[in-house]
Design a protein that fits this description.
CATH architecture of the largest domain: Sandwich
Radius of gyration: 19 Å
CATH class of the largest domain: Mainly Beta
Strand content: 35-45%
Strand order of the largest sheet: 6-5-16-13-8-9
Oligomer: single chain
Largest sheet: 6 strands, antiparallel
Number of helices: 5
Shape: elongated
Order of helices and strands: EHEHEHEEEEEEEHEEEEEEEH
CATH topology of the largest domain: Tumour Suppressor Smad4
Distance between the termini: 35 Å
């Protein structure tokens, strides 16, 4: 990996801000708008925010964990950063693009690096119809919600909802129900990355549903379309010994 200028961004936590102070004293740096590589200090939430913030610049992002889980981050060390960046391996991610229509007729578009999730807003379970590439695949799903996850996001909310872990190179997405009531035994589906999924909310006035793309929430939706957007490349950098593909495979064998 070759680069000429580094920028640092950090979460607002005490650990991340302390790391920012030490690193900016130790290494030459420029504002994020001028850098050709960005070092993000925080957890996975900060990494998602940084990807969204600089999505138009397509600049590679190297994360160091100053948060909690840090699945998308490298380990934190102050020394040897230039050498680590030079050796770092690039992983390309493609986001999901969500188009949501509300009952009031508003249309909202947002991108998700991890997942798009539909969630019930009240005590009433959500009632959904699912179309894939225009064909009805599930006439009625009664549930707390449902999500569609990218491979990188398959180890996040998707895994907590008992969805499958997906290798980065698999070219598929996961469709995972959240507490499905009917059909009770439906556990979701694996879809080709080209699939266009349409969720139609039934009885939306009685059973309101919100749609969330990472941290963009749209309330009271009636239709939500989700597809992978391959026109957008997001570059994450990892130490060779901290390879993301290996971590995703290893996650499947944790006890």
């Amino acid at each position: 990996m070759t680069f000429s200028s580094i920028a640092f961004v950090a979460a607002e936590s005490e650990a991340a801000m302390a790391a920012l102070g030490r690193l900016t004293q130790r290494y030459p740096h420029v504002p994020p708008e001028e850098a050709d590589i960005i070092v993000a200090l925080g957890g996975d939430g900060l990494m998602l925010e940084t990807l969204h913030r600089f999505i138009e610049r397509r600049v590679p992002i190297y994360g160091m964990n100053r948060g909690t889980i840090g699945f998308l981050m490298n380990s934190f060390r102050e020394h040897g950063l230039i050498e680590r960046l030079s050796r770092a391996q690039k992983v390309i991610l493609h986001p999901l693009r969500m188009r949501a229509k509300t009952g009031a007729g508003e249309e909202v578009e947002a991108l998700a690096m991890n997942e798009v999730s539909l969630l019930r807003e009240t005590r009433q379970a959500a009632k959904l119809r699912i179309r894939i590439d225009g064909k009805i695949r599930l006439e009625e799903l009664i549930c707390d919600g449902i999500l569609m996850a990218t491979p990188a996001g398959s180890t996040a909310y998707n895994l907590s909802a008992h969805g499958p872990i997906i290798p980065l190179t698999a070219d598929i997405t996961a469709l995972t129900p959240i507490s499905a009531f009917r059909p009770r035994r439906w556990r979701g589906a694996l879809l080709p990355h080209t699939a266009k999924v349409m969720f139609e909310i039934q009885e939306s006035a009685k059973r309101p549903v919100s749609a969330v793309a990472d941290y963009t929430e749209v309330r009271d939706v009636v239709e939500v379309e989700v597809r992978e957007d391959r026109s957008i490349d997001l570059a994450l950098l990892f130490d060779p010994e901290h390879n993301l593909e290996e971590r995703i495979i290893a996650e499947q064998f944790l006890q």
